[in-house]
UniProtKB/TrEMBL annotation:
It comes from Fretibacterium fastidiosum. GO terms for biological process: tRNA processing. Keywords: ATP-binding, Magnesium, Metal-binding, Nucleotide-binding, Nucleotidyltransferase, RNA-binding, Transferase, tRNA processing. This is tRNA nucleotidyltransferase/poly(A) polymerase. The keyword Manganese does not apply.
Length: 445
């Protein structure tokens, strides 16, 4: 959730200074404007939105942009959006969807998103969204069966909001979601995997454990990730199932997200979801299991249209986190940083910690030592940039060739790779030592 919590005593003052003043400024151009969507919902929840979402009674956003300094129209999406800043407050505005604000709100799925705030302080709330916010429930704006029958993915969006906001789901009708899914299995399976992926990634972004728990409660796992559902029948030999291990890991990750900066967070969360897919042993020492896990992870995430870089990062975390349960030398860590990058190593180490806490593994002391050693390696590489004005090495390839009077080739590359390790392990700490190291090692290379 974006934005900062508003202090209770100054809430009305902040509101007056922020969204009401923004609305009044926009309306001075001759159009009517309302604060809508997530922005209105956040204000009602006592949270100040970072970017204000406006609906404006203007069909021509280009004309409106001419009357708002610095505002520009972005026409790349489904409908044009006017982006700009008023009184230092960033905003995005779109034309009313329909003839009136009531028409616009009626197009929204959820009551808590179907609220509009006026410039005079009034509120348009035709579906009781403010009441639902107070009662902490998620409710559709119309008939549950009709709306979900029209777009079954609405179920996932409802669960995403419920997970993110910590609210309960309230069905207006006595609808059995599981029965709906069973009766409409073919329709659910016909939904493109890319659409599933978009909703799943959004749902897991902040509350991965709660979101997957809700999906499990409503019987959605067999629809979008059957291999995860299958883990419920795979015992670990200790009285638990592999599914419980996945959920325990997601629980630890969810608790860390608000308080820890997790590198490659999307790949990190996906690694938690897929870490046990296709495996039948806890240590995953079998090469066949690792290959099966990698193939399944790649297949699902590719179908979900996840970027290839994120898929590789998630697979690298799954493949490499167990290595942190053994004490690693600085030279080993240095080589891994050079091969995979600092962010990937930090993510793998954090993931190993999450797994260890989730499963009660006796590796925390080893992880702590590896974390300290990795920090030393990264500190030394950063020192190079400080000494050289941002360069990644004390000596570049041209400088090494000039120093040794050699042409480009394998020898130069091998020397530079060796110099990187020498820097990362603390044997070389300045340019003079780098030149000395190159000269002394050139003969052996």
């Amino acid at each position: 959730m974006t934005g900062g919590t508003l202090p209770g005593c100054g809430f009305l003052e902040v509101v007056e200074m922020r969204h009401l003043r923004v609305l009044k400024t926009v309306e001075r151009t001759g159009v009517r404007a309302w604060l809508v969507g997530d922005s209105a919902r956040m204000i009602e929840m006592g949270i100040e939105p970072e970017v204000m979402t406006l609906a404006v009674d203007a069909k021509d956003l280009s004309s409106l942009s001419d009357r708002l300094d610095g505002a520009t129209v972005d026409a790349r999406g489904t409908f044009p959006v006017l982006r700009g800043s008023v009184l230092g407050a960033p905003f995005r505005a779109y034309s009313l969807q329909g003839d009136t604000i009531a028409d616009d709100l009626a197009r929204r799925d959820l009551s808590i998103e179907a609220i509009a705030l006026r410039s005079d302080g009034g509120v348009v709330d035709p579906f009781g969204g403010r009441r639902d916010i107070r009662n902490r429930v998620i409710r559709l704006t119309g008939d549950d069966v009709e709306l979900i029958d029209r777009d079954p993915l609405r179920i996932v969006r409802i669960l995403r909001f419920a997970a993110e906001l910590g609210m309960d789901v309230f069905w207006r009708t006595d609808m059995d979601v599981r029965e709906f899914l069973r009766c409409h299995a073919e329709r659910m399976n016909a939904i493109p995997a890319e659409r599933w992926g978009r909703e799943i990634i959004s749902g897991m972004k902040e509350r991965p454990w709660r979101f997957i728990s809700l999906c499990d409660h409503y019987g959605l796992l067999p629809v979008f990730l059957k291999d995860l559902e299958d883990l419920k029948s795979v015992p670990d030999g200790r009285g638990r199932t592999f599914f419980s291990h996945v959920m325990a890991t997601l629980s630890v990750i969810e608790r860390r997200l608000p308080t820890h900066k997790i590198m490659q967070d999307e790949a990190f969360i996906l690694a938690g979801l897929f870490s046990r897919i296709g495996t039948r042993s806890l240590n995953a020492g079998d090469e066949g299991e690792r290959r099966r896990n990698k193939a399944l992870t790649s297949s699902f995430l590719s179908q979900w249209n996840i970027p290839a870089e994120t898929i590789r990062a998630a697979q690298a975390i799954i493949d490499g986190y167990r290595r942190f349960y053994e004490l690693r030398t600085e030279e080993d860590l240095c080589g891994a940083v050079l091969e995979h990058g600092a962010d990937a190593m930090a993510a793998g180490l954090d993931f190993a910690g999450c797994i260890a806490r989730a499963e009660g593994l006796p590796h925390l002391e080893t992880l702590s030592e590896n974390r300290w050693r990795l920090a030393q390696v990264l500190r030394r590489f950063k020192a190079v940039a400080l000494q050289t004005g941002g360069a990644s090495r004390f000596l570049g390839g041209d400088e090494v060739m000039s120093l040794l009077r050699l042409a480009p080739g394998r020898i130069i590359g091998a020397l530079l790779d060796g110099l990187d390790v020498a820097v990362g392990t603390g044997r070389v700490t300045n340019r003079a030592q780098a030149e000395e190291w190159i000269v002394s090692h050139a003969r052996s290379v």
